[in-house]
Amino acid sequence: MSQKPAYRSWFRSIRDHQETYALDEIVYTARDGSLLEVVHDMDELRKTPAGDWKRIFRERAHSSEWPYGSGVWGKKEWVLPGIDNENVVSMYEGNTNLFWAERYGRELGLDELWIKQCGNSHTGSFKDLGMTVLVSMVKELIHRGKNVPAVACASTGDTSAALAAFAAAASIPAIVFLPRGKVSVAQLIQPVSNGAIVFALDTDFDGCMEIVKQVAEKDGIYLANSMNSLRIEGQKTVGIEIIEQFDWEVPDWLVIPGGNLGNVSALAKGLDMLLDLGLIDRRPRIVCAQAEAANPLYLSYQRGFEVFEPIAARPTIANAIQIGNPVSIEKAIDALKRYDGIVEQATETEIAESCARADRTGLFNCPHTGVALAAMEKLVKRGEIARRDRVVVLSTAHGLKFVDFKLQYHELRLAGVESKLANPPIELPARYESVRDEMLREIERRFGH
Asked: What is the pTM of this model?
C-alpha cells in the first residue's frame, strides 16, 4: 500500500530563501523588510501525476463535499494543505464563468476574446479568492490558541467587503480603513452591513495602508492586505481555473488590471505551479493594465524595470487601483519578466469608453475591468495582439458595485469624459403616437432597420 503524500507549505522570504517561517506564525515581512511568499513541497505534489490532478480538480468542482466545491478549496493541496477542514471559511467562491465576448471581440478584430467574470462571486469581486484563505488561516490560528483580537485591512472597497463578509461568517472581528469619500456607496455599505468596524479616514489608500500596518505592529491586529502572502494563495487559483476551463489549453494572453499588484504575482504563481507539475507545457503572456493617474509600474516598465519610484496617485474613476506605492511591486516585476509581460496604461476617457463599448455588447463592467479592456484594445490596434490569439481579460469586480460611475457616464456628468456612447432614458409623455414615433426613429438611428 503506497504512502499518502504529506503535503506541506510554509512562508519564505522572496529574497533570502533560507529565511522561513511556519504558516501559523504571525509574520508579514522578512527581516530585511521584503515580502514573504507561501512555498509548497513540490516534490510531494509531484508524487501525484498531472493527469490525476486534472481529474481531482474536475471531480471536485461544484461538488457538495465540504470544502472542495469551492474553486479555491478544490485545490486545497496546492493552496493551504495543513489547515483543518473544520476551520475553512468559504462561500464556495471561485468557479466563476468564462464569458465568450463574441460580439465585442468581433468588433475589435479578435476571433477569441474571453472575459473571466471574477465579480460573479459572493461579495462581487476577485478578492473573495484570497480572503477565504486568509480568514480560514486566522480561524485555524485561533483554534491553535493564538491571540488574534481582530483582522484589519486598508481598502478602496473590494478588499473590505470580502474581509467583512468572511470574518462575519467566522465570528471574527473585522476592522476596515477606507479613504473617506473615495469609494462607491455600494462598496461602503458592504462592510457596514456585515458588521465590520469601519473607519473613513481623511487620506488615500496609501495613507490607510500606513495606519493598518501600525495597528498590526503595535496592537496585534492581524493584517489582511495583500502584503500578507496567504491572500495570494487563494488569488493564484484564478489562473489555474481559466486554463482548466479551456480543457488545459493555454491562452495566448491574460490581461489584468493592477493596483497594489498582488493580483499580477498571484496570477503568475498559479501558472508556475501548473508548469512545474506538468499540467501545461507553455506560458501565456501577461498584460498588466494601469490607470494613467496611478501608473508607477507602467513608468518602471518604460525604463526596462531598472528603476521603480513610488508616485502620488491622482484621482481616477478606477478608484480601487488609485495606488502610487504598490506593496507587491517586487513580486509583480518578477512575474512580468517570467511571463514576457507588457504594462500598458489607460486615460480616464479610454477607461470610460472601453467600459461603455463592452457594455453595449452585453457585458457590464466595473471601471477597473475597463482599464484592462482599454489596454487590450491598444495592443490589438498596435498589432501586438493578433486576430487569432486567444485573449482572456480578467474582470475583477461586478459592475453593480459601480452604478454611480455608470450613471454619471450616461448622464454626461463624468468629469473630463465626453461620453460618446451615452444612452440616457428618453423622457416622453404617455401617449402612443409620441412613443411610436420616437421608437421608430431610435430603431432606425441605432440599427438602421
From this structure: 0.94
CATH code of the domain covering residue 109: 3.40.50.1100
- Cα 444 to Cα 449: distance, rounded to the nearest angstrom: 5
Residue with cell 471531480: 59
Q: State the Cα torsion 79-81-85-86 to the nearest 10°.
A: -100
What is the arithmetic mean of pLDDT over 224-251? 96
Residues of the domain holding 393: 98-122+232-410
Determine the Cα–Cα distance for residues 434 and 181; give it in Å rounded to an integer.
42
Q: Where are the beta strands (DSSP E) in 262-341?
A: 285-291
Number of domains in the chain: 1
Cβ contact 238:267 at 8 Å = yes
Find how far residue 292's CA is from the centre of its chain: 19
Classify residue 441: in a domain, yes or no: no
| Helix-helix angle 367-381:348-359, to 10 degrees | 90
Q: CA 443 to CA 438: how far, in whole Å?
A: 9
Q: 17 - beta bridge partners?
A: none
57 within some domain: no
Omega of the bond leading into 326 within 30 degrees of 0 (cis):
no
- Is pLDDT above 80 for 166? yes
| Cα 256 to the center of its chain, rounded Å | 8
Cell of 320: 480601487
Higher pLDDT, 448 or 292: 292
The beta strands (E) that lie in 292-418 are given as 342-346, 390-395
Cell of 159: 478588499
Residue 117 domain flag: yes
State how far the Cα of 207 lies from the Cα of 209, in Å rounded to an integer: 5
Residue 81 lies in a domain: no
Question: What is residue 157's predicted lDDT score, i.e. its pLDDT?
Answer: 82
